[in-house]
Amino acid sequence: MAFGMVMSAAVQGLHVEMIHVEADVSNGLPMFHMVGYLSSEVKEASERVRTAIRNTGIQIPARKVVVNLAPATMRKKGSSFDLPIALAVLAALDLIPGQALEGTAVVGELGLDGRVQKVSGVLPVAAAVKEAGIRRLILPVENMAEGALTEGIEVLGAETLEQICGYLNGKEQLFFSRKEGKPEEKERFPIDFQEIRGQEMVRRAAEVAVAGGHNLLMVGPPGSGKSMIARRIPTILPPLSRGESMEITKIYSVLGLVDQEHPLKTERPFREVHHTVSRAALIGGGMIPVPGEISLAHGGVLFLDELAEFPKPVLESLRQPLEEKRIRLSRRHGNYEFPADFMLVAAMNPCACGNYPDPERCRCLPHQIQQYLGKVSQPFLDRMDLCVEVSRVSYDSLCMKSESFQIPENSETIRERICRAREIQSSRYQGETGIGSGNGFHLTNASMGIRQLEHFCRLGKEEERLMQQAYATLHLTARTYHKVLKVARTIADLEESEVVREPHLMEAIGYRGLDKKYWSR
CA 436 to CA 440: how far, in whole Å? Predict the structure, then answer.
């Protein structure tokens, strides 16, 4: 009777569990049996492993082989267990020394010819290996640049099972040593805010929204520039810190969306979602859930164009993530939590034809307009910090020969102001409880709690009077009242003002008038 064990890892949602792959070889009826609550692709590993070992030139004797993946209470899925299963069997047959695998974790898929093939989710696995105190990680060579992003462990890559066996048996030059991923050059955006003509108020609203991490809704006729503005928001987003880049890259790694040559995400994500998206694709799902578009937008922007065309249940599913900055899913196999700290940018027409309230162009009946706007509920609107109307662009704004034509500010200039405002917020909320996620995603005005609002958004007598009038006139709710204060705080930060003054508050209140104009009819 012989026994071999290899450490591996399984990704459940974004959580990584360390897995003990155990193999026992004994006398009995020849068989290759696998246990441990396995999915179909893991059960199929027995055929891949046996064929890969044979094509490597190693003959498995006709004996009883039992492989166990522990803990047995957790569902195992994916093809990343092929390589650890093969090494556990070879260790049980004394074809490789078991002590050589001590302190080593192994992840990889095997081809029938014995080649080690790449897998997804390597970065969170490498981070979990480091946290578990394991000093070495063996990966497919194609995943090495991604695994090497995790510092503090030795990352080794291999092309074939034969190379790994040679390495574990002490042979030289049969295994690829660790190599660092090439640093990714800073991306130069092919688009710029300078290309937007006119729309000064919308440009200002976009700047305020990005500066404070606020949600933005744009309402206007087709062709007025709503999508154009939204797609240029990434050009004014502040750069990512190292911790933010790693957290975002882990999400993309789980879904296999990482560029293996330049694995580290250095730009904030911008996800544009079509209105035909399903609820599961948006928030994540599956028997063993995987992240959806909301989590892919973590740390960046989620753009919903043609907002009123989205199914109402899909829009309503956004309400909890917008408040809690995370997604919680419950399944029979367990509970899963995905990060969802994103800035929501939405655009929509004011009616089905898009021309309301122009009486000469709009042909929609009042009940049709109300029905169209009613697709977006008031609770959803309350979660939009800024609502701005996008009007048609005048000819003088477009024509460069016009006397009133002016070249707008470029993205770099706007981004510098936003970065200064974000630095003020980060310094203000450093050490505050109930705000922040550890990597700085939540250190913005949009994520202030009640306690921070009372402390950092105190109003003077004139500001209190103005706020009281707006509360009564616009029929604000408690949620929208707090939204106004947060936006006003951001406007003050852009001007580097210590206190919220009347002009800041007036501008913030102005961003709440649009939803009352259209939805209170």
Answer: 6
What digits encode the pLDDT tens for the residues 450-464? 999 999 999 999 999
Q: Which long-range contacts (CB under 8 A, 24 or more apart) does 419-423 make?
A: 419/238, 419/239, 420/496, 421/211, 421/212, 421/490, 421/493, 421/494, 422/211, 422/238
* In the block, residue with structure tokens 């063996």: 138
Min mean pLDDT across 331-335, 428-432, 476-480 is at 331-335
pLDDT digits (tens, 9 = 90+) for 268-297: 999 999 999 999 999 998 777 889 999 999
**Neighbouring C-beta atoms of residue 319, cutoff 10 Å:** 14
Q: Six-digit token pair at 274?
A: 């079509």
Q: What pLDDT sits at residue 134?
A: 94
- Specify which residues 4 forms β-bridges with: 23
Do residues 145 and 181 lie in contact, with contact meaning Cβ atoms separated by under 8 Å?
Answer: yes
Residue 332 — pLDDT band, cuts 50, 70, 90? confident
Q: What pLDDT was estimated at residue 513?
A: 81
Cβ–Cβ under 8 Å, residues 77 and 44: no
3-state SS, residue 294 = helix
CB 13 within 8 A of CB 287: no
**Best CA proximity match to 121, nearest among 159, 81, 169:** 81
Q: Please tell me the predicted confidence (pLDDT) of residue 423.
A: 95
Contact 98, 88 (CB under 8 A): no
Q: What are the CA-CA distances from residue 308 to residues 219, 388, 441, 519 (Å)?
A: 11, 16, 29, 13
Contact 233, 300 (CB under 8 A): no
Give the model confidence (pLDDT) of 205-220 as tens digits.
999 999 999 999 999 9
Distance CA 109, CA 295 (A): 26
Question: Which residue from 189, 324, 329 is spatially nearest to 270, judged by alpha carbons?
Answer: 189
203's tokens: 């440009």
- Contact between 301 and 237 under an 8 Å Cβ cutoff? The reply is yes
Q: What is the dihedral of CA 197, 200, 205, 210, to 10 degrees?
A: 50
Facing residues of 335 across strands?
Answer: 330
3-state helix, strand, coil in the chain (%, to 5): 40, 20, 40
Q: What is the pLDDT of residues 85-108, one digit of tens each?
A: 999 999 999 999 989 899 999 999
